[in-house]
Amino acid sequence: MTRRQVVASLLAIVVVAVVVRVAAAALIVFPKPEDTAYYVGVARNLLEGRGLVSDALWSYQTTPLAPLPRAAFEVWLPLPTFLAALPMAVFGSTFAAAQVSSVVVGALVPLLAWRLAADAGQERGLPPGRVAVLALGAGLTAAVYLPLVLHSALPDSTIPFTAIVLAACLVMSRVARSPRYAEGGRPPRNRLGDPRLLVLGLLIGLGALTRNEAAWLGLAWAVVAWSIPGTTRPERVGLIAVPALIAIAVFVPWAIRDWVAFGSPLPGQAVSNALSLNGRDIFAWSDPPTLQRYLAAGLPRLLELRLIGFAHNLFNVLVLLGMPISVIGLAALPWFGRGRALRPLFVFSVLTFTITTLLFPVSTTWGTFLHAAGAIHVLLIITCLMALDWLIAAVGVRRSWTRPVAWLAPTLTVFGAVLFSLAALPSFGGGSRETQSHYAALAIALRDTGAPLDAQHPVITNFPIWLAETLRVPALALPDEPPASVASLAAAFPGTSLVVVDGRDEGRYPAAFDSDAPGSDCFQEVPLATSGVGAALLADTRVFRVVCP
User: Fold this and answer.
1) Type and span of the H or E element at 502
2) Distance (Å, whole) CA 166 – CA 324
3) Which residues contact 265 (CB under 8 A, 6 or more apart)?
4) pLDDT tens digit string along 131-169?
5) Whether the Cβ atoms of residue 155 and residue 83 lie closer than 8 Å to each other
């Protein structure tokens, strides 16, 4: 590609990516996913001078269980909050301000897709014109591809982790292509003289501050580095060890903070997630996941959970959100995804999909794989385009076409991606506005009922992060356990006076409060004072007062 082609391609990709992401951010006015609300809420607390604390407690497996607010990130990691806090410090502590960071980082992802596709096309020996079209097509498709656009409007871990993985894989492919880095024609005296390894270690370290799946990114590099032909064992050890040491150095300060705050240097609940039999086990209070309970479920049930996790990761996450591009990309993956340029991303994708499916089959249905799959979507876009390019070229040879038609492939993928994004984004935006209106109506109804919310009285609810973020009150996750367990939870946090249950949620509540089960008499329903629009918004919401001391 000429310099003019490169500049024009990058400019077109950036303009399209920014415009589409700004439009998506304008549609989504409230952080509907609870993890997004968590990151934004902690960022707001940080800017208000309260520190890295959260007003919502949803994981009871990480000690100490201090009164709210408590130290944040007992499970999740802090980089998304830091990214959200930067524009919030400039434009104000609002969700719209937090979205600026997602839009900016999200606009980088199509540029990284462009570079990966260009490397893959050059590796296959395509003519320069087809390489340019392939790369531009990958960048423009990624700019309008629904899964990437949607998460670029949400300040969560998905898009930062996607950008980190893609950048790391680009560095990996370059090191694998030329493992003996030389500056000025002379090789460095040791591996620390190779800046590519330093950058790779920094990226993996930043990934570790974003999502736990950074471990699989590091493992992917170990697999790729160990398989580089023509390198000696000491060279392979150096290629792996240097980035590992840099990544550890980046993560160590946060590990020390976690050690001080929670008694462990590593993110919590990983073992509990692996032993979960139900998605609501993450909210367990009296009956947390154990190995004994897990094994007692029996082999058929454990196999069934993995089949469910496999189907969710494959169809719900990869296929349905990106059709028809994802279908073609998956079909083409074995043939076009294993080349040297895409091998690091291919290895990461296989490791992440396999480990998540086999080790965390339950938690993955609640978003574990979804939030780590952004880079995998980019891989499918590229393999889809490479397959279409190959098919169109083959048809052209067979029919003796005399004019190049490589542009057909990106035209098809961009059109398909735009179609799905236009169809789906308005519904996501409508859902976010509905959630915002729901909690605003709840605050008014509780005030008019005589049970107002305040910062001194924690509320137990099945959507604790939403309630804490919208109403600015401390919130505790409702465990999917008998009423006696909920009463025990309320007693453990003095001042807890209300339980708010969204009836549209699945699980045993609110029906369990209407039963004669032990502990159900500790909860007295509070009829909500609603009318008009508020009554419609709260039709499936019930509130109970805790009456046991």
Assistant:
1) strand 498-502
2) 22
3) 255, 256, 258, 259
4) 999 999 999 999 999 999 999 999 999 999 999 999 999
5) yes
d(CA 213, CA 371): 10
3-state helix, strand, coil in the chain (%, to 5): 65, 5, 30
Cβ neighbours around 484 below 10 Å, total:
15
- DSSP secondary structure letters along 369-423: TGGG-HHHHHHHHHHHHHHHHHHHHHHHHHTT--S--TTHHHHHHHHHHHHHHHH
**The tokens 């560095």 sit on which residue?**
171
CA-based nearest residue to 99, from 159, 186, 14, 184: 159
Output the CA angle 16-22-25, nearest 5 degrees: 140
- Alpha-carbon 493 to chain mean position: 31
Find all residues with CB under 8 Å of 166, minimum gap 6, and list them.
109, 112, 113, 116, 345, 375, 378
Phi, psi of 96 (to 5 degrees): -60, -40
- Predicted local distance difference test score (pLDDT) of residue 466: 87
How far is Cα 141 from Cα 410, in angstroms, rounded to an integer? Answer: 7
The answer to whether 145 and 24 are in contact (CB under 8 A) is no
Q: pTM of the entire structure?
A: 0.94
* Residues in a beta bridge with 477: 461
DSSP bridge partners of 54: 70
Scan for tokens 């003095």, then name that residue.
494
Tell me how far apart the alpha carbons of residues 419 and 382 are, in angstroms, rounded to a whole number: 19
Which among 232, 231, 201 has a CA at the least distance from the CA of 218? 201
Reported confidence tier of residue 268, pLDDT bands at 50, 70, 90: low
For 379-424, the pLDDT digits (tens) are 999 999 999 999 988 887 777 676 667 788 899 999 999 998 888 8
Q: What are the phi and psi torsion angles at 546 (to 5°)? A: -80, 115
